Amino acid sequence: DAKTTQPPSMDCAEGRAANLPCNHSTISGNEYVYWYRQIHSQGPQYIIHGLKNNETNEMASLIITEDRKSSTLILPHATLRDTAVYYCMEDSGYALNFGKGTSLLVTP
Amino acid sequence: GAVVSQHPSWVICKSGTSVKIECRSLDFQATTMFWYRQFPKQSLMLMATSNEGSKATYEQGVEKDKFLINHASLTLSTLTVTSAHPEDSSFYICSARERRRGDIQYFGAGTRLSVL
């Protein structure tokens, strides 16, 4: 079973920031937090990952709490093409273990 | 990012036949590849870990004689679904870790298998 918990679904208006939360209260000190998304009928796409510092790349920002028990993925200006299922996962260096993720719907 | 190529993207076969799915890492060497399966409206489930030059490691409940995995080179792993049945119809996805660039696990586009 996945060790992270995410809300099953969220809505976001196009052009607004999408903030997707994730709880990973049992994460160990050397495990990274990874975020992926899966657009319908495609393979998962890597978004971003981090250990304890906040991270930003061309796709998103990742905010990790100081105690590392939760994180938030931020899509700064959501577009319709960001509609997907978003997965937050702890990575121990083995295969990624997918939970149910958050289904994000971006609306016009 | 690194690219993982999967072929075919879609296959229909008759019950009782075998289907082979290929997974290639295009710009990096992958000593380990992973095979997942995804049923409609469900999440990805890990089936097996494919190790170059050795036998695959299967997850509990996955039949190794039915899902044959061969990892013959550092850039190619294959999954063969033998004696396919309609209940094997699913979305099969492979992935590989790119150790040099942040140890990120990259995924193929998936193969949709329909068994008639």
Please name the defining characteristics of this protein.
heterodimer; A: 108 residues; mainly beta; five-stranded mixed beta sheet; four-stranded antiparallel beta sheet; 9 strands; B: 116 residues; 0% helix; globular
Can you tell me about this structure?
The complex is a heterodimer of chains A (108) and B (116). With 108 residues, chain A is mostly beta strands. In chain A, 0% of the residues lie in helices and 46% in strands. Chain A has no helices and nine strands. Chain A has strands spanning 9-13, 18-23, 32-38, 45-50, 55-56, 61-64, 70-75, 84-91, 102-107. In chain A, the strands form two sheets. In chain A, strands 1-9-8-3-4 form a five-stranded mixed sheet, with no helix packed on it. Chain A has a four-stranded antiparallel sheet with strand order 2-7-6-5, with no helix packed on it. With 116 residues, chain B is mainly β. In chain B, 0% of the residues lie in helices and 53% in strands. Chain B is built from no helices and eleven strands. The N and C termini of chain B lie far apart (36 Å). The chains are: A mainly beta (108), B mainly beta (116).
Describe the structure concisely:
Chain A has 108 residues and is mainly beta. Chain A has strands at residues 9-13, 18-23, 32-38, 45-50, 55-56, 61-64, 70-75, 84-91, 102-107. Chain A is globular.
Low-confidence stretches of chain B: none
Mean pLDDT of chain B: 92
What's the order of the H and E elements of chain B?
A: EEEEEEEEEEE
Radius of gyration of chain B: 13 Å
Secondary-structure element pattern of chain A, one letter each: EEEEEEEEE
Classify the secondary structure makeup of chain B into a structural class: mainly beta
How many strands, what sense, and barrel or not for the largest sheet of chain B?
Answer: 7 strands, mixed
Q: Give the low-confidence spans of chain A.
A: none
Strand content of chain A: over 45%
Strand content of the residues of chain B, in percent? Answer: over 45%
What separation lies between the terminal Cα atoms of chain B?
A: 36 Å
N-to-C span of chain A: 35 Å
Strand order of the largest sheet of chain A: 1-9-8-3-4
- Oligomer state equals heterodimer
| Shape annotation of chain B | globular
Q: Structural class per helix/strand content of chain A?
A: mainly beta
Q: Report on the biggest sheet of chain A.
A: 5 strands, mixed
The shape of chain A is globular
Helix content of chain A: under 10%
How many beta-strand runs of chain A? 9
